[in-house]
Automatic annotation (TrEMBL):
<feature type="domain" description="HTH lysR-type">
    <location>
        <begin position="3"/>
        <end position="60"/>
    </location>
</feature>
<keyword id="KW-0804">Transcription</keyword>
<dbReference type="InterPro" id="IPR000847">
    <property type="entry name" value="LysR_HTH_N"/>
</dbReference>
<protein>
    <submittedName>
        <fullName>DNA-binding transcriptional LysR family regulator</fullName>
    </submittedName>
</protein>
<keyword id="KW-0238">DNA-binding</keyword>
<dbReference type="InterPro" id="IPR005119">
    <property type="entry name" value="LysR_subst-bd"/>
</dbReference>
<dbReference type="InterPro" id="IPR036388">
    <property type="entry name" value="WH-like_DNA-bd_sf"/>
</dbReference>
<keyword id="KW-0805">Transcription regulation</keyword>
<comment type="similarity">
    <text>Belongs to the LysR transcriptional regulatory family.</text>
</comment>
<dbReference type="Pfam" id="PF00126">
    <property type="entry name" value="HTH_1"/>
</dbReference>
<dbReference type="GO" id="GO:0000976">
    <property type="term" value="F:transcription cis-regulatory region binding"/>
</dbReference>
<dbReference type="Pfam" id="PF03466">
    <property type="entry name" value="LysR_substrate"/>
</dbReference>
<dbReference type="GO" id="GO:0003700">
    <property type="term" value="F:DNA-binding transcription factor activity"/>
</dbReference>
<dbReference type="InterPro" id="IPR036390">
    <property type="entry name" value="WH_DNA-bd_sf"/>
</dbReference>
Amino acid sequence: MTPDLESLRLLVLVGELGSLGRAAAALGVAQPSASKRLSTLERRLGVVLVDRGRRGSVLTPAGVVVTERARRVLNEVAGLVEGARALRSAQEAELRVAASMTVAEHLAPGWIGELRRTRPDLRVGLRVTNSETVGALVRDGAVDIGFVEAPGPPPPGLSSRGAAADRLALVVAPGHPWSRRRRPLTPPELAATPLVMRERGSGTRDTLDRALPDACPPALELGSTTAVRGAVVAGVAPAVLSVLAVAVDLAEGRLVEVPVDLDLRRVLRAVWPAGRKLVGPAAELLAVATRRSSMEP
């Protein structure tokens, strides 16, 4: 049977200290327990390791050989533990995040900034992409936590939790006929209007597709919220975008929000691999996000 590490430590200490009593004291165990452990080790290995006499305990020739090998084993184990500790420290000092564009551009920088004020040595990498790709990165283990805008339950293989609230708004350029409209636009009217849209796979597009399953083809399909916003400002067509992305444009008059008889509120969610507990910096980042969200009006 394989000897346990504590018995090997006891044997090494007996050889170094020349006394079973002193070796037991060094390990913090009673001498009778240490003597029993040493006898068990000898039985397992099938050799006598220690001569016990009135003047102390002396290693036998076999004991000298076994003790040297035991010392190498213990050194290897200590190296393993230290290496694992170093790997854990490296993981705890690094946080890999993926976020959909709305979250990455308007929320994640504030979350990360607050986290780093309490963890100044933390290195954070943020990958910006659409919600569908965020989910794939999390499932593949390429990032520690992701943030998505996609509506509905998380895709298979992912756990999720709400991190922040958001609302989509129908926006137009100031010269658009809808810019002076006071009566809310009906869903059929909006569905019949070609819009500037994000690509499929983005959370904003998925939310709109669910709200308007019979919508006509888009007037223009673009790969970023910034590009969609720019097209609306240029007067290409209306668009439905997060209020986080157009708040400054609305305040400064570059865009106008059009009332619409449609509930476009949504929850921005954190995602991580299913069946795994979120720990370390990833859990701390989610805590920051939910705390800041709860303080917003």
